[in-house]
Amino acid sequence: MDANRDTPGKAPTGSDTGKTDSKAAGMNPYLGLVSSLRAAWLTGKTRTAEHRISQLEALGRFLDDKKQPILDAMASDMRKPPFEVELSEIILVKNEVNYALNNLSSWMKDEGVDKNLVTQLDTAFIRKEPYGVVLIIGPWNYPLQLILVPLVGAIAAGNCVIIKPSEISSSTEKLMAEMLPSYLDKDCFAVVTGGPAETTQLLENKFDYIFFTGNPQVGKIVMAAAATHLTPLTLELGGKNPCYVADESDMQNVANRLVWGRCFNAGQTCVAPDYVLCSAETQEKLLPALRHAITQFFGPDPRESPDFARIISDKQFQRIRALLGSGRVAIGGQTDEKERYIERATTTQEQILAPLLPIVTVPDVDEAIAFINSRERPLVVYVFAANSKLVRRVLERTSSGGFGANDSVMQMTLISLPFGGIGNSGMGLYHGKFSFDTFSHHRACLLRSMGLETMNSLRYPPYSERKRGLVLSTFRIKHTGTCTLL
Ligand code: NAD
Q1: 143-161: per-residue pLDDT in tens?
Q2: Residues having CB within 6 Å of any atom of ligand 1
Q3: 88: which DSSP letter?
Q4: Contact residues for 167 (Cβ-Cβ < 8 A; gap 6+)
Q5: Which domains does the chain have, with CATH numbers?
Q6: Model pTM?
């Protein structure tokens, strides 16, 4: 892993990839890097359990050793409170590392499958094979976690990997480029830094798998680049997550859980509840409860609270401030450009990745469902309701990457649940075992014996009616059970 060799035009160092030479010759500046990783992949070293374990352990050590630099980098990028960094960046990745280490040997085992009559004496199984050279591209809002959690899966599955953190969270990008390489096998893992221009050049190369987290527009660019090489990919994209609040809910609990999910990381969370759908009566009860929760969490002047992060960049700040100007602000809404501070606000305008919580009033749950279904499919649908039938109704009649009832964001704490979007919010799954499977090709294997040729010869020409009957009976799957539609 070498942070220097990724900068186009920078002189190669030591046993570097010859990228500058490639550039001078008019070739892609990352060709050398990708080729060197492919050469390492072809040696087979990343396939062994020992190599995977040693790299996962090294990643765990990186998180332990560099905890303070990680806290500092995120403080510098968006003044993210240490509590939030530990919970949503460090521990989350460490859990993935430990979970992968605990389960790797069983995940790597060949999976036996059912056989038909002809293959009874043979061996049939699914082998989880690494894809090869993988590219992981991340966004700025959870700059460490959204690179390293996929990396855990890619390492566990036995791949070589290039990671491309977001250039916008520049302190965390620098930390990963400068500190991570010394922990991992430099032949197999590399960090590339830079923005859209560098990513575009990187994407011109052939990868065996691409894992992208970012916005849907850029997702389309990445998918088009992947299509050039027929590279499979996962897209973890954005969207607006609706939250229906039923009339009979305990409003203070609802408000506490909503405000926590919405204000964590200053609202810059892809699974945060983005807007509330409720009746006008519920809105009347919810607004004071939200106000109370905000004051309880952040004090009378939230700007002074050490527990409220800042907006990542001036560009994002301007976008959010413009939104505030276009809606009726019911709570909060103060801003400070110098600090990129935006007081969490409740407006009637919808938007994501900011501490804003628009409220849209609807007469009932059916209207709420219709509202949700008339828009792009979100990453998460949330519902707050004491009535479990109502929760089930929203679950059954909407579609989204994930679903949460009576809380926000907490589904992310379960490593046993897959994480991913659907439609506009993405495609593919990861976290825990799902990450391992995502970065593994499921290779279908049948190892036949050379015996029983008389039985095998039934399928060879010349065909006959007798052969047809016998062969079909050995392959046929009979419908055994009954299916009752209730
Ligand atoms: P982004 O798509 O702008 O950037 C993501 C990555 O793509 C960065 O590394 C960036 O350098 C690169 N990139 C940007 N423009 C590019 C281009 N034209 N060509 C090639 N590469 C390009 O996303 P962002 O602003 O960093 O992150 C915010 C977005 O990510 C939001 O839409 C949010 O909802 C989404 N997000 C999704 C998840 C999820 O898990 N589904 C998690 C976090 C964020």
Answers
A1: 999 999 999 999 999 999 9
A2: 137-142, 146, 164, 166-168, 195-196, 199-200, 213-215, 218, 221, 236-238, 270, 353, 379, 421, 426
A3: I
A4: 173, 193, 194, 195
A5: 23-238+432-441 (3.40.605.10), 242-417 (3.40.309.10)
A6: 0.91
